[in-house]
Amino acid sequence: MTNSVEIQFFVSEFPCIRIHFRLSRASPNDNSRLSPGGRGIKLKRSAIAAVSASFTGPSSVAISVAQLGHYLGPYRLSSIVGAGRACQVWEAVHEGDSRRVALKVLVPQHSHDSQQLNLMRHEFEVGRGFDHPRVIRTMEFDTSRQAPYLVLEFFGPQNLKQLILQGVDQIAYLAPKIIEQAADGLAYFHRQGWIHRDIKPNNFLTNAEGDVKLIDFALAERRKGFLGRLFGGGSKIQGTRSYISPEQIRRQALDQRSDIYSFGCMAHEIIAGKAPFTGNTDNELLTKHLKSGPPPLEGINSNVRPEFSKLVRQMLAKEPAERPESMDEVLHAVKSMRVFRTNPAPPKAESGGRKGEG
Ligand SMILES: Nc1ncnc2c1ncn2[C@@H]1O[C@H](COP(=O)(O)OP(=O)(O)O)[C@@H](O)[C@H]1O
Ligand SMILES: [Mg+2]
Known about the structure:
Strand content: 15-25%
Number of helices: 12
CATH topology of the largest domain: Transferase(Phosphotransferase), domain 1
CATH superfamily of the largest domain: Transferase(Phosphotransferase) domain 1
Shape: globular
Largest sheet: 6 strands, antiparallel
Number of domains: 2
Structural class: alpha+beta
Strand order of the largest sheet: 4-5-6-7-9-8
Bound molecules: adenosine-5'-diphosphate, magnesium ion
CATH architecture of the largest domain: Orthogonal Bundle
CATH class of the largest domain: Mainly Alpha
Distance between the termini: 29 Å
Mean pLDDT: 81
Oligomer: single chain
């Protein structure tokens, strides 16, 4: 029998782009080789329009996985589950104890890039002490193999952006749970003294039951005290444009309320299907973050309760002082209100292909 595995590769910023590769090996000990498989690249125009606003830079589409082989340290690579600017994320299994993990691997063109290595080391340092059901567990950082990698708890099958792209009507019955769990994860993150600085749907993982885990701590920054905030700021703009807070755009010092703004953008998107602000150019989008009021959620979906719409609007206030003070406050508010007037029902099980494919 042929020893081949089909890999579905996608770019996390463009979950609609799927490139199929066939991984084949002559014998179990050979290094793997990748060759483009039959189906090629699938693009869905509407989906591209929906996610292009969150695209932040060139992605590591160049596939160099063949150079990794089938094993990385003690981990057997099963399939690619995501990719970012400089990394690929693999589902993998520990050879010794059969633990299922995710390996976040720097792609070869970045494996000696000190900036990317420092970001990965930082992500490890930030995440290693975390212990919370709504935040991914960070287990190891290894630089001694053919590619530097992080070992993370595996969770899936997809990130929240991919779930949203299935259609918000389809997932509305899960939305209150997703929002509450995501708030819980971010509240924990803040309580540990960190600001995430890249809160967006791509950086939460979800399963079929609507459970959520926060990931991607590469841009996280320690929360500063009052003086630090007063004299801080000035660092280059980081984060993703569709979710970026006005103070991030202005390169001011940030506190947890910047993440609360991004969380508000994400909560809006979970209900409305798109982020509150979009633009044809970066400039237009950033200007809207600075100046435009968000479209009211209950105007987009009349089933949304006014209290919830108001909470999202408060999170999206231009001035941090007008937002909720903490994610604990947001979490408390979300727990004590209902998102919808009438609870949406789960969609009836369909036979046939999944929406968004083909
Ligand atoms: N622990 C994990 N389990 C399963 N999938 C993951 C895991 N971590 C990341 N992914 C997938 O890989 C994508 C990119 O990971 P991320 O850590 O956000 O990389 P980047 O720093 O490049 O944005 C995620 O959006 C998600 O789809
Ligand atoms: Mg990410």
